[in-house]
Predict the structure.
Amino acid sequence: MSTLQNKSMNIFNRVLVIIGILLLGLGCSTILLMTLGMWDPQQMMPSPWEQVFTPLTQLEGTNWWSVVGVCVGLLCLGLCLLFVELVPHSSRKSAVTVKNDHLGHITASLTSIQDLVNREAGKVEGVLESSTRVQESSDGLHLHCCLSVTPQASANVLGPQVQERAKEVVERYLGKNVIGIHIQTQMAPLGKNRAKVQSRVR
């Protein structure tokens, strides 16, 4: 199944889920209004539906609280699900498409690209640790590299070296243009939450 077909199926499934949530909300709201006495089924509904829903207006005690509680709970759940479905997801891609033709598509995982760049950066004198984020755009790739460097290192020297190495190795691996390599250097160790590669001890 192609990527376009997958997207179409995802949209179709989301539309079905949203319609189901709206129908659930409509049903719960109707039952809740009748149970609270705010909507008289004898006046609002044709026969035989009014005979089915009229007992809801006559509930008392535990039964009344049970119906109201279930309806309110389902409405809250429906609103949460609707919010999740309607709010745009920051879907982070896990792979870069290298080739897509009639034979199929070829991808490279973002992790492999990050590891590749980090290894190359670790070969540059003065780089202790490297962490890379890959961003794909319509005209090529952007690499965002955060480097932990030694106090004796010069950002003006090692920065261009990392850019050159990263561009060469990624373009050779993917066959795609690297149009931007953004380097951030620091002397403090990289955060624990970063995927990083330490350079070899020199």
In short: The first strand starts at residue 95 and ends at 101. The chain has a mean pLDDT of 84.
